[in-house]
């Protein structure tokens, strides 16, 4: 439960009052509820999913605060959020008559809102009732007009009614089961008290007029525990009605029957007012039955199904209502049993006939074999009469108009209404006999369109043809719309979708700007919606069953095209943007090549054209003049790149290519050009984009830490995850990227396990879900060689078989006394029950036969079919030995992908081989805490915040750190308004602000800001996320700068633990963390551990960057520093010599770092010589002991400088004159970029911009 306490300490604002009182109330809420959020702004409440809100008001009254309180109060009530208003008595509306402190049900405030404040009409009536109460004026009277007349009809508004007095006739009572019932009346005369004003406002909720009946449904019980039967019928169905009334004779708890006659045929002259029974019923009026209770007949009602649920307060005096159709014949014992069930659940809809809906299409389903239901038909259902008021006066009039227009769905509306008001499902009572009336006339449900109309009620389809654009039958029929063409014109340009035409089965030509499956729907709110956007991008030829001639020899050599599990493989939009950018470069090169040929009259080889500089090509294109025949040159370039226009660059794809159900209305040449462009895009993905990503990995410009970050890297470059096997094969060829190869293989395994796991859990009974999941994890991460043989599982199977046997024996005993046709019916019914009962299906227990060998066979096949990668492993032991992957990394990745939550404890994977499930197993069913849905979403892009951020980034590039800091702070404020206080983008923004504070020398503010970034990353990303580890590393640096070296070491150890959990110890991040740890441990004299971490960092750097890398040289230098502090000058000399040789080789003799290394090398040599001389003196006997050498400890500032170097922060001294020159160059470059034609943006989110800005300030040593 979340209970936000809305507090604001500003005296001029809404909730200002003493801080002591607000804090006491907040502490009370904090102790009463699990989660409490303190909000000081209204938007904080609107941006959260809340269940309870406590509003704390100031003690001094203010009209301004009063108005603001009304706005918030009514908004929260309309959202059905529970409110606590302990200090707001002066601000609550009508607090003199409404008792808000009164304990009631959770939905009472929702009722208050619906009755008193929902609409203008409600508020007007409430105001009038309040004024009458305030000035002691009586409420409006609604006197009862019951007149016990049998022969004369009484007129009421626009209908007539007749009360037929009761007549107990024992000769007409049912024979058999009802013989022993006594009909002696237990009714006692009672005095009706006039309710008080307090009761009218707070218990009856009826201050508008005087009433002798109570309308608050669940607070009091009627003095007569009886029910009223409500029957809706027509004159033409009098035969069924008469039979039903006689059948209902003798019900012991029945109070009255109300029969509603809908008038189908018009009645005589409108001016005629004196009608008799014969006018309405004809000759049938003499057959009106007399039973043991009164029957109220209502005539001349409009032909409207809403009449069933009108609040007939004049005729209904019981809380319970039994709604019956005139052909619903229930047994008396079933009705009385249903009434007892209703008395225990008066807020629910209790009925006998249920219906369901199909989960995939939401269609109305009447299948009797379904074991689940969604609603109860009101043709035989108990409900509280209070819902009749809500149906008529509170529920939307549009729904009632729809019911009247369609003559259908009134029961669906009532089901929705009750579930909405109570948050409870309807309850079904099992019946033993059929409801079918053999001699009854046909009803409304026998119409051909009846069930289709009910499906439309569920789906809210009020239009005959809701789809006004696109196709719903895969191109057989298709439609278009001018408004959609106008709206999609700009969208198709941005998404690079080619306008094209398709032919329907009837030969009609339809112009489209999207794929044919996209559907345009105009909603009830008048807005235009677009659905089914899966194929907004073109298909991927590498995974489509197309002719080999459509692919190049290079792709055929790589065994493309490959088969996949479906035909929905499409290219990503990021790849389309990158490919278009490459074609744009080719466009400029083609124009430059043609211009060069035209001007020099000499041919230029293709090789020289490929080497043409892009900037040079653009410069040549800008010099095009009319004399150069520019039109022909541009047209030639457009044809060469496949542009859809002949006078400008405009490359687009046809998304309906290679769709067997779509017939394109275009020439063969146009189709061939579209296929050629699509083939080039598919080749660009495999032959260019994937190798470019591998090159980025080698340059360490992108360093994924786990499978999620690897997926983000692939998606940002437009590479689908089905190419993960191809990526893994290329990574295996690079020795420096062995850590990424392990991550890629782990991701293939976990994604394959995710798909197998989903199929595995589909047939598992819900009560065995935890058991089956633990067995799956044991088979995956340990070695299980035999199937499940657990005692509890055997017990379950035995109980299931016993139940089946007993039910079978019962069926046999029943069949011996029944006829043969009944045997067939019951056998068929048993088969249907076995089909829909999960505990009786044979396939539901298949999980018990799973072993490690069988599971890994499935995983190997899944990895081969989806990713084209051969795991070549029989169990987890072989996988770990082959790929050196930690099992914890596999478990973490699988849990993130499947939504599993496990108990926090130490799992022993390597204890022993497990032949079966025993007491020492790795996973048990108690370890499975929860399983939650994994949802993918695309957050909105805050354009204003992004503009501020990029402007601040440009200021930082120009050296204006203070101005850039202010702009980024403004971007942070806008992000906070858009996303709320917690979001990954805000965490990235805070990290950049902290880095700017650190660079500008404000270490304390940098630590404070980075602390917020760490907490936010833990909340929104998780405590084990790689980004959280990066935040820890930055916070450790700022902590050390604030003389908190111990805290810095703890933060780095925590970051190291997170990286170990994500990917293991073999990763560049571990190298960075170990370097930081070594320096910090060195600062307070722990040289032994410092040297261990530094040597580990050196070993990893050699693996990832090569033995001659500048990072390796820096690691050698840092090792030499620690070794010299330990007095091991020989080792220090060797380490520094390695660093000097690398600096000399990479940077030259005159570089500053080479000279510094030479000076350190000279100093270490002198120290080593002095130490050796003193050792020789001791050997010769000239000295008794070796005197201690004076070893200069590294200063705090020196260690901080080295930490800056390790973390990529270099402070360069530059003159103001040189800085002005740099600013002019950056400004000139920005001007040139703005004049060029815009292409695909390189930065799409704040996170990307933050990474680029951080990279500008993090001048890496390489």
Provide the descriptors you would attach to this structure in a database record:
1262 residues, alpha/beta, Spore Coat Polysaccharide Biosynthesis Protein SpsA, Chain A, 9-stranded mixed sheet, 4-stranded parallel sheet, 43 helices, 8% strand, disordered C terminus, Clu domain-containing protein
Briefly say what this structure is.
Among the domains are: 223-432 and 446-459, Alpha-Beta Complex (Spore Coat Polysaccharide Biosynthesis Protein SpsA, Chain A); 467-531, no CATH class; 541-598 and 616-701, no CATH class; 749-785 and 849-910 and 921-931, no CATH class; 1065-1226, Serine Threonine Protein Phosphatase 5, Tetratricopeptide repeat (Alpha Horseshoe), CATH 1.25.40.10. Helix content is 49%, strand content 8%.
* Computed Rg: 40 Å
Tell me the strand order in the biggest sheet. 6-7-11-10-9-12-17-13-18
Indicate the CATH topology of the domain at 223-432 and 446-459: Spore Coat Polysaccharide Biosynthesis Protein SpsA, Chain A
User: Can you give the helix content as a percent range?
Assistant: 40-55%
- The computed structural class is alpha/beta
Poorly predicted tracts of residues: 1-21, 103-107, 142-151, 167-194, 211-223, 602-611, 791-843, 912-919, 1234-1262
Number of helices: 43
In total, the number of strands is 26
Average pLDDT level: 77
Name of the CATH architecture of the domain at 223-432 and 446-459: Alpha-Beta Complex
General shape: globular
Tell me the fraction of residues in β-strands, as a range: 5-15%
**Oligomeric grouping of the chains:** single chain
The CATH superfamily title of the domain at 223-432 and 446-459: Spore Coat Polysaccharide Biosynthesis Protein SpsA, Chain A
